[in-house]
Amino acid sequence: MVQISIIFLGLSACSKNNSSPSNQNSPVIGLADISLTKVVGGDSVNFSLNFEDNDGDLGFDNGDTLPPYYVGSIYYNDVYVDYYEYDGSRYRRVKPPLSGFDTIQFAYRLPRLNEFSKPRKITGQIKLGLILQSNTIYSNKVRFSVFCFDKALHKSNIVFSKDLIR
């Protein structure tokens, strides 16, 4: 589930977070809110992310599937959420049992956010939702990290959620 609201330059300010992106055209994200709710079979997690993108190339058109945006490429999706569990001494990214995946990572593909053909600074808020199935959760204390790529492959800063108690 992805919900996006966009506010163009001058109408809204975004909060910036602790790590810096690689250059001035990299998106900057901040975690505005996160909530965890128990549901049948697991937990529902909802995020609100503030974003700022100086050149306005965050998100994709439907036809953006040629390299480097092809299915299977890290650049096919543009928002990534990593899942961490507290093991009693530190947080660790979680490897799902009996799978070929390294860690649990949720990926989202946003639609193009800049309605105009000219590059322009955009700001706004992205709302993401995910379900953690109870058979993949082994800790009562969890957290998430989020980062994104824009269309020019600039990587944003990485933001971490607060500790969430299940």
What would the keywords be for this entry?
mainly beta, six-stranded antiparallel sheet, 166 residues, disordered N terminus, globular, Immunoglobulin-like
What does this structure look like?
This protein has 166 residues and is an all-beta fold. The chain has a single domain (2-165), classed as Immunoglobulin-like, CATH 2.60.40.10. 0% of the residues lie in helices and 42% in strands. It has no helices and ten strands. The protein has strands at residues 2-8, 28-39, 42-53, 79-86, 91-93, 105-108, 122-133, 141-148, 159-160, 164-165. The strands form two sheets. Strands 4, 5, 6, 8, 9 and 10 form a six-stranded antiparallel β-sheet that branches. It has a four-stranded antiparallel β-sheet with strand order 1-7-3-2, with no helix packed on it. The protein starts with a strand and ends with a strand.
Please outline the helices and strands:
Elements: E1 2-8, E2 28-39, E3 42-53, E4 79-86, E5 91-93, E6 105-108, E7 122-133, E8 141-148, E9 159-160, E10 164-165
Antiparallel strand pairs: 1-7, 2-3, 3-7, 4-5, 4-6, 4-8, 8-9, 8-10
CATH architecture: Sandwich
Strand % is: 35-45%
Unreliable stretches covering 5 or more consecutive residues: 1-18
Q: What's the overall average pLDDT, rounded? A: 85
Summarize the model shown:
With about 170 residues, this protein is mainly β. The chain has a single domain, classed as Immunoglobulin-like, CATH 2.60.40.
